[in-house]
Each structure stands twice: as structure tokens, then as C-alpha cells.
Design goal:
This protein is of the alpha+beta class. It is 35% helix and 21% strand. The chain has nine helices and 15 strands. Helix 3 (167-182) packs antiparallel against helix 4 (199-233) and helix 4 (199-233) packs across helix 7 (262-271). The structure holds zinc ion (ZN). Zinc ion binds at residues 293, 295-296, 298, 311, 313-314, 316.
Length: 339
């Protein structure tokens, strides 16, 4: 790759960009590769024109093992595709950067070409790609099942199993609320009025971001485990094609919906198809899955607050989410599309 000359000879020389010289050139190379991809995607009509990234938002950068980073004396620069061997242990050496201490130990020797360093709250993470053998496809115990992603319960499967959000999410959310309430009188700072944040407020911001990270980690862990478990057990997974944006616009549902991350679950189920050999299908959002009787097919109105389905025709009585999941499983073929 040719390192763009305009950047090094013009942009970097400007006095307001003097901070750019503090960092190794490998960081900018990956940014140029990303820019190239973004522009070619825009040319093909796959995305919008790339926007400028602020230095402040989303702390992350990628480094590669590139030519000219570790050239041996008297020898030509190494080819771009050279991989870096990562020895097992608690240290990692990033190409073009220094050696870093890891919180978690790597238990095996591996190699990678790209390293992405990112920050969440006040913690730094490094992620890299590994080549591994694909897990042989599992034989699914259940052939077909409907899954109702709910507000009360994380997911209800039509074979009778249920997945719940752990109680720790509620605890962590309460702790967050308490933290915000107790610090409401601190001088939190205001840019418009040019009031600086107090030292105590700065410490509070770190604690606050850590608490937000903790909540999102619990959520991520639960949804990942749930989608993996589901993909292992069920071959044909049917979920409702929900209008998530519309549900978040409804203020009463918003917190519950974004809390249970419907879209994230769907995204995970879809990409895990390749890993576990599953088939994810979406049921039309206008199909009355929660209003239909799973025994006789009678359709009746249901309020959001009704937790039990009581059929007025055949007297069938069932939990709302269980009834919905069975209807999703048995949805007619014209209401189904592949995810
Ligand atoms: Zn009925």
C-alpha cells in the first residue's frame, strides 16, 4: 500500500495537527484502508459518503504488520501479508507499537495480521483475528421452533423452554440510578457556559462509564449465551420480524425493548446460522401471532397488559408468550421469509 503523501507532507505539517506526529504511522495506514473501502462502497451505491471521524468519539484504531515496520538490515521490506506470532503469556507486542501487559493470559501460541485497539469506559482492549477449524455442524434436537422475544421474558421457545434476563441487570440498573442521583449536585461542567467539571465530577464520570459498561456486558453475555444455546438445539428458528424502531418510539415499551435488545438477538441468530447450520426465518410483522389461539385458530383482540390468552371460542387458556411462540412455529408459509 502506498502511504498517501498528501497526508504526511501537507496535513501533518499544519500546526493544528501537530498531535498527529505523536503516533506511529501504522495507525494512519489502517484509517486509509478503511477510507478506501468506504469510498468504494459509496461508489457502488452500497453506503453513504464517508463522514469525518472525530478524535473524541469511539476511541479505537487498527494496526497491521506492514512492510517497513521491522525490516531486517540489508534486506527488502517484509511483504504486507506477514503475520505476527503472538506468544502465550500475559504480554502482547503490537506491530509498530510497544509491548503491553494483558489482564487476561493467552494460553496458546497464535498469529494474526491485524490488531484493533479500542476503549470502553476506562479500559483498553485489543482484538485480533485467528484462523481456526470450523466446528462440525451439530445435530439439532429440535427440528422447528418459534421463538417469542418478549418484554417480560427474554425469549419463550415453543418447545416449552424459556430464557430470562438475569436479576443482576436490574441490580446494576438500580445501582446506576443511585449513582446518578447521589451525584446530581456535583459541578458536572457545562461547555456552553464554560464551567469546568470538578475533580470529583471527573472521577464520577469514570465510575459512571464503568457502570454503563457493566450493564452492557451483562446484556451481551446473556444474549450471546442464549442465541448460542438456541442455535445448538433448534434447526429451524422462527422469530417475529419486529418493527423495533416503532416499538422504541412507544415510550411505554422503549425501555423494555432496548433492554432486551431484540435487534441484537436477531443479528446474533442470523450470523450464527453459518456456525451451527441453523435456518432463521422471519414471520411477517402483521401476522397476528399473539392474538391467535394456538389450538383452534380463533383470532381475538389482546391488550398489551393481558398476560394470559383466554380463547373465547374453545376456552383454551395459556400464557401469552407461550401461545405466541407456538403460533410463530406454525405460521403459514406465505407469512414467512428467510432472514
Ligand atoms: Zn381457541
Amino acid at each position: 500500500m502506498q502511504f498517501p503523501k498528501v497526508f504526511t507532507q501537507v496535513t501533518m505539517q499544519k500546526p493544528e495537527n501537530s498531535w498527529m506526529k505523536k503516533y506511529p504511522s501504522t495507525i494512519y495506514q489502517s484509517a486509509f484502508i478503511d477510507l478506501k473501502n468506504a469510498i468504494s462502497r459509496w461508489r457502488e451505491g452500497l453506503g453513504g459518503f464517508p463522514r469525518k471521524k472525530s478524535k473524541k468519539e469511539g476511541d479505537s484504531f487498527t494496526v497491521y504488520k506492514t512492510a517497513g515496520v521491522y525490516p531486517e538490515k540489508g534486506k527488502p521490506p517484509l511483504p504486507f501479508t506477514n503475520r505476527v506470532t503472538i506468544p502465550a503469556g500475559k504480554q502482547i507486542r503490537l506491530p509498530g507499537l510497544k509491548t503491553f501487559r494483558l489482564k487476561e493470559q493467552i494460553n496458546f501460541i497464535c498469529s494474526s495480521q491485524t490488531f484493533t485497539v479500542s476503549r470502553s469506559a476506562d479500559k483498553w482492549f485489543v482484538s485480533f483475528v485467528l484462523d481456526v477449524e470450523k466446528i462440525p455442524p451439530t445435530i439439532h434436537a429440535v427440528q422447528k421452533a418459534g421463538v417469542d422475544l418478549g418484554v417480560k421474558c427474554l425469549a419463550t421457545v415453543s418447545n416449552g423452554s424459556k430464557y430470562d434476563m438475569p436479576a443482576t441487570t436490574k441490580k446494576a440498573n438500580t445501582a446506576l440510578g443511585k449513582l446518578q442521583w447521589r451525584n446530581r449536585n456535583k459541578a458536572l461542567g457545562n461547555k456552553k457556559l464554560q464551567i469546568a467539571a470538578s475533580n470529583k465530577a471527573k472521577k464520577y464520570y469514570v465510575r459512571l462509564s464503568r457502570q454503563h459498561l457493566r450493564i452492557s456486558n451483562i446484556r451481551q453475555d446473556t444474549t450471546q449465551k442464549m442465541t448460542t444455546d438456541l442455535s445448538r438445539k433448534v434447526y429451524n428458528i422462527r422469530i417475529e420480524d419486529l418493527n423495533v424502531a416503532g416499538m422504541i418510539a412507544n415510550r411505554k415499551l422503549a425501555a423494555a425493548v432496548s433492554n432486551n435488545c431484540f435487534y441484537e438477538i436477531r443479528r446474533q441468530l442470523v450470523y450464527k446460522q453459518a456456525h451451527y447450520g441453523t435456518k432463521v426465518e422471519l414471520v411477517d410483522r402483521w401476522y397476528p401471532s399473539s392474538k391467535t389461539c394456538s389450538r383452534c385458530g380463533h383470532v381475538q383482540d389482546m391488550k398489551l397488559s393481558d398476560r394470559i390468552f383466554n380463547c373465547s371460542k374453545c376456552g383454551h387458556c395459556q400464557d401469552r408468550d407461550e401461545n405466541t411462540s407456538i403460533n410463530l412455529e406454525n405460521a403459514p408459509p406465505d407469512k414467512i421469509r428467510l432472514a
